[in-house]
Amino acid sequence: MSSPTPPPPQPTPRLSPAEVEATARAAHAGQTDKAGRPYAEHLRAVAEGVRRRGGDDEQIAAAWLHDAVEDDALSERWLREAALSRRTKDIVLALTRRPGEAPEAYAARILATPGAALVKAADLAHNADPARLAVLDEATRTRLTEKYTRMRALLGLVEPGAWGGDGTGRPTRR
After folding, report:
1. DSSP state at residue 28
2. Contact between 64 and 91 (Cβ < 8 Å)
3. pTM of the model
4. CA 159 to chain centre
5. Phi, psi of 32 (to 5 degrees)
6. Higher-confidence residue: 42 or 161?
């Protein structure tokens, strides 16, 4: 007689969208952007931009967390162990700039990671928002505008506002 088969392991419950948002807000608490605004405003804008562009829950979660590892707000170990989908983790890691990394290598990694280009497109759109840039000094505004324009070109994204021309807000390349 054979022994009974054990039940299959239960999947670990994933963080809910509200939990991801709360985690990101807590991780970046007290942090401000270049204009002195609470950093969580940028995260919210990127997450909303992903949603408007047709992104799914995994991409929206990545949008909330897209700068967390790069800014040392959360560790790579936290990300590895977090109750998030593999795809969300991959997108966050793809969007995490590495010290000394060439923009071409960064863009190539984003393009090679399914779902990451849409999150980066939303990030760049908010970063390059003229109203947001207007409060910066001219030298910083010029430097950042050139940086964002170069990254958009490396990613093959169309000009801001055009977003593929089909109304979806998706970048022209994925």
Report:
1. T
2. no
3. 0.85
4. 19
5. -125, 160
6. 42
